[in-house]
């Protein structure tokens, strides 16, 4: 039997990268998935992957509410909410940003990386209590270390890890809350509009990717599929029944090498 047979799951940031890999893996493991995306053009591909796409912005509580309601309406409940959507800041140094850029970029990065988790958890918690389900967030090696981004990104990922720990206390014993913390990954994650980075992609710079690979003890940058098994593990009641409040590293050894 598939590891997540019959599970009903919401995944945000599902259009590409880690989110898309998780959606595909969940479907392969027997789950029924609502996939949240920002662009209408991404919906058709997710539907062909076997997911039920929803258009919305994780900065808006109504998006989380709508995604959860769709899963409950279609399948009668919810077993897991994956707050995966995120943006990076391309290591933008604090002193290279104007005061107005700092304020706007802070609001944008924290709204996606932290508020997205908060809204998703709030919209989902009652349904997850009913099923003994879980929340999973996507963190980063920057949830533990400086150097994985600039000050704003790093602060947002530390905040996300803190929220995971606090929500694990608040939602216990009925709902588990955990995170997966990838390291350097070959994805097209973009940055905030406030810093003019909305059209940039992490993997759009070959020199950057080579430099990242050189820092990795395992000798390469990861691909999104490298992280998907941890999302399966944390979603499964049987396989991670006693795990909550954890942020599980999937960083190729980067954190231990510093």
UniProtKB/TrEMBL annotation:
One term of GO molecular function: oxidoreductase activity, acting on NAD(P)H, oxygen as acceptor
Lineage: superkingdom: Bacteria
Keywords: Oxidoreductase
Pfam families in alphabetical order: adh_short_C2
Record has Oxidoreductase as a keyword: yes
InterPro entries linked to this entry: NAD(P)-bd_dom_sf, Sc_DH/Rdtase_CS, SDR_fam
Keyword Ubl conjugation assigned: no
Family in the record: Belongs to the short-chain dehydrogenases/reductases (SDR) family.
Name by which UniProt lists this protein: 3-(Cis-5,6-dihydroxycyclohexa-1, 3-dien-1-yl)propanoate dehydrogenase
Species per Swiss-Prot/TrEMBL record: Croceicoccus marinus
